[in-house]
Amino acid sequence: MTLHEVLSAKRDEVIVRWKTQILGKLAPETMPPLELVNHIPRFITEIVAALRADAGLSSLGPSPDETTTAADHGAQRLRLGFSLDSVVREYGALRESIVTTAKDAGTHLSLRELQVLFDAIVTGIAQAVTEYSRQRDAELLRQANEHFAFIAHELRDPLSAAMSSFLLLKSSGQLPVENRFVGAVDRGLHRTRELIDQTLQTARVASGIELRRQSTTLKILFEEAELGAASEAESKRIEIRSIIETDQRINLDTRLVRSALGNLVRNGVKYTSTDGVVELRGRIAAERVVIEVEDGCGGLPPGKVEQAFAPFVRLDNRQTGFGLGLAIAKQAVDAHGGSIRVQDLPGKGCIFVLELPIAAESP
Fold it and tell me: Which of 21, 169, 273, 359 could cysteine-pair with 93, CB 3.0–4.6 Å?
């Protein structure tokens, strides 16, 4: 008998051997059989298909490298609390069970059969480990975001109380307005509030939540972005211009797009020289919305283009801030399955370009 014939005829025997090897060692003895075995019969069938295909016979179905069986197995093992080491050793136990069953059946395994079996097992391990690690890392990131969001949220109330009290003391004349220490406290409170707000935005966008699309237009989004940057723009005498080539009702997650666009415009105002211009341009074409924010920052320093969207990177060390604005914008765009890039205009400024797939409303 060939190896694929042994596996076809004695699949249940292989599974029993495999269960005996892992119960109480890699898996709890009390684990229900359905959860324990789950993907193994399908994986064995895929090994049989790989062996038959290699022998030039018709395949019984897809091989291990053509399905998600092993990946599904890795994800299930993560949910059940298996260690990554146990997942790998499960596949080693399966290989040993297959070889032992074949030898007991009097089958002489050829080097080619052993190679195909080895390749299938290695492929299974790789896929299971990859999916296990991906989902584990995603869960750790989600927990970290929840933790940071919780801390940031808890800090908002005492900070708001401190800011209100500080403003009350200033307005009542109990604090000297021109005192540099009073100014330092004022700036510190506002920078702390900015960090808390950005931390909450980052945690929300990175949490992997489902998009909540709402109807809006470019005109509405631009007006909100301008309003959010109006105070600083006025203090620096910066003009914010809006140019909309085409507009219509569109469905986007307005919270995320508002956050992304607001950060880009505020950044543009922050880095543009006094008496400069920040220009918003937008158009809708081919089921995509394209938004450009051009500023007058003078161009990006060497190496900053590549780092622009990384967290905690400031484009200009002369400016204060936490370097989260562009990272938040990128996360918001990524959540929509879109793209964001920056075009450097040396000596003049830079253009940030957002492209988002949209769901257009019927007129």
Answer: 21
